[in-house]
Description:
The protein is of the alpha/beta class.
Amino acid sequence: MVTGSNDFTQPPGTTRGSFEAPDGARLSWLQSGRRSARPSFLLLPGWSMPAWIWSAQFGPLSMDRSIFALDPRGQGESEHPTQGYDIHTRARDLHAFASTISPVIAVGWSLGALELLEAIHRFGSMPFAGVVLVDSSVGEEPAPAPGSPFIDALQSDRASALDGFVRAIFASARPEAEVRALVEGALRMPLDKSLALFPRSVPREHWRGIVHALELPLLYAVSPQFQEQAWNLRTNRPRTQVEVFHRSGHALFADEPDRFNRLLIHFARTLSAPPPPPQR
């Protein structure tokens, strides 16, 4: 992820553009690679994180297709509107942007995975050629630990809580300049808006139902914290591809970028591969 300077917002080889969300909010995105007939990758960051957190993906994934990474409203370089921080509005933003670059293989990390599922549930799967969910709870058992202690910490000492959060999502040590850039970026969003991003009122069964009904090709890549959910999902939805990154933290695409990139490239190529011949 290191770009060679302390300006992480513009990874080498990328261009930045903007998109007008359905309610007029201006959203920023990063892009690399050339458009082709192949589905593009659309990378969606997690809670409070910027599009540039996918820096290790832009070069390798853009060898034969376009790569886009979206800054959701209030995050990264996107506008901070006064409203729209609920999961339904952000899912609408995501779907609207995906529709402008369709077809896409959407890769949602953490909260981004839930917003992707909500977008498909509410607005349809038309822009999407495949779905990759990265280290996010999808409603299978066992349920993750409640998030209230972290929310309490944010309300008590936000800067310290965010610093601890950023350091904890990586298993590998990160440069201090990168940690500071992620924390400072997250602090630009008002506290009440950042808390509104958590879909706490949505029951876990909601996500499980969406995933089980999903008709698109699905890859579920997780760190050890969600591996039991991953195996249960594959039992309940056998056509799901599961990959466990045992040596990674929550940001597994940054901890093991080479493996993650190879996995996405292979997944993308299987979408366009001809079906196997019928067995006799």
